[in-house]
Amino acid sequence: MPETGRQYEIGLKYQPTGWNSFITASVFDLTRQNVVRSGNEGSPNDLFQTGEIRSRGVELEAVASLDAGLDLRAAYTYLDTKITKATAVEDVNGVWVSNEGNMPFGVPAHSASLWANYTFMSGKLEGLGLGAGVRYVGSTYGDDANSFKVPSVVLADAAVHYAWQNATLSLNASNLFDKRYVASCFSSGFGCFYGEGRRINGSVKYTW
């Protein structure tokens, strides 16, 4: 059967007078029918359809650029996700079970991020920018049966960039401290995956 969905969303944006900043807030209600899922306990490589999944949540974001060269960004998301109608699946013991009322695997209820960037506006270091931030991903269930949880994790990121005339050099590092963590699981009978380790990307941009 084809997957269908219905979504309602409302949002608000506020920008204080005289400030180079804004705050946004949105709430949403999304319902999807016949959602294709993987990670069946009995056959984790197979795909199957779950009757209906409902996601309700709130998203908040604040962005500010200060005159001194400091830019700030913060974001937070809350998700209330449930399997509201479930197709029964066969578990590892050959028992047909329904996951109705449970949370889908791999979906955190809470996630947040904070990022700050400072750029020197004058002096010998003019054009040099330094950035740092943290990301929080809340705990998730490792399967639709909600039989076990994947722990939450906090990761650090950093960046260095330098603008000179028409050129911009950038160096970005994610998971700065090379933290080892479990990113997701699909079922107790299939397995889990580690998250990406430290990654460093460099780029050169030139405009004319």
Describe the structure.
This protein is an all-beta fold and 208 residues long. The protein has a single domain (4-206), classed as TonB-dependent receptor, beta-barrel domain (Maltoporin, Chain A, Beta Barrel), CATH 2.40.170. The protein is 0% helix and 62% strand. The protein has a 9-stranded antiparallel beta sheet, with no helix packed on it. The termini are far apart.
Task: Summarize this structure briefly.
The chain has 208 residues and is an all-beta fold. It contains no helices and 15 strands. The protein has a 9-stranded antiparallel beta sheet with strand order 1-2-3-4-7-8-11-12-15, with no helix packed on it. Strands 5-6 form a two-stranded antiparallel sheet.
What's the SSE blueprint?
Layout: E1 4-14, E2 21-38, E3 47-65, E4 70-85, E5 89-90, E6 96-97, E7 110-119, E8 128-137, E9 140-141, E10 149-150, E11 153-164, E12 167-174, E13 182-187, E14 191-194, E15 199-206
- Please give the CATH architecture: Beta Barrel
What's the CATH topology name? Answer: Maltoporin, Chain A
* Poorly predicted parts: none
Care to count the β-strands? 15
- Helix count? 0
State the name of the first-level CATH class. Answer: Mainly Beta
Mean pLDDT: 89
How many structurally independent domains?
A: 1
Could you describe the largest sheet, including whether it forms a barrel?
9 strands, antiparallel
Q: Measured on Cα atoms, how large is the radius of gyration?
A: 22 Å
Instruction: Please report the distance between the alpha carbons of the first and last residues.
Output: 52 Å
Order of SSEs, N→C? EEEEEEEEEEEEEEE
Class from secondary-structure proportions? mainly beta
